[in-house]
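Q: Can someone sanity-check these two? First one:
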Amino acid sequence: MSGDDEVRLVFRKYDGSPHWSSPMRRLGEDEHGVWLGAPAGAIARRGRATGRAVDYAHVVLVPRDGWWTATFNDVPKPTEIYCDVTTPPRWLAPDEVTVVDLDLDVRRRRTGEVEVLDEDEFVAHRARYGYTGDVVEQALAAVAYLDKALRGDVEPFSRDYHHWLARVR
């Protein structure tokens, strides 16, 4: 697939129900994975609801085998980087990638503050959906990695993403 092809990014819950989806442009690949982008005004859809326009440009890194995805936001979004802990991405077709959202998130605000989010939701959904021991272990390992990486000078969370974000501004 060449760069700038449309790709549908689909987030599902552990039971298979739709969570988020968004059409994005495939910007390219590097050692970190596949980069997808959307300009300000792009539509994001939550579940089966009608989509809404996002008022800032953003890029999403889909790692080849990580248990997370990372969204890098342009201003005016106060969250600079938002990482969803997920199952490893599965490319269902050249124009569709899907992940299972495992509730936990790690974000870095533009102030530099890093925080882990939705730990209560993870506990509730672990019981509700019956997350396996391996899924729990991988999710918690992903949180530990992301928390440390977002606090340090670790790529792709330091500088590498700026190149990709500039392409969708």
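And here is the second, same format, sequence then tokens:
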Amino acid sequence: MILPHKFQDAEKFNLQFSDFSEITETADKLRWLRYQKGLRQRDVADYAGIYRSTYIHYEEYGKDFYSPKHMEKIAQLFEVPVERLLDDYNLFLRNGQGKQIKAIRMKLGLTQREYADRLGISLCNLKQWEQNRKQLFKSTWEKYFK
């Protein structure tokens, strides 16, 4: 059963976003889909096999990285492809940051050293990014690859 104040929250939120396609932030997508299904945060967390506090954090702003394993389960529950849940940063990671960074560099016709110099980063960092040994922070992705 949804408590009256929670129902009002859902109504306000659904007025803000009348169509799922308007939503760009993962947190808002999760909240919108959960409200559409009439589920509680606890229901989603239980289905995904995560703590409720973890899921609550998923619906908050400022969350940068979403566990691929958890998002797969949540996407199953909401009956949408996982790609529809993810923001551009998480899609970049999901689609292989290394091969995408390397593809950008190759398109520019640059060596790793030249590309690192152009970005103003260490050659070591670029190599680790391209080899998926070091995950980009969202702020770094926004600065160089958005």
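A (reply): Looked at the second one. DSSP finds eleven helices and no strands in the chain. The two ends are 42 Å apart (CA to CA).
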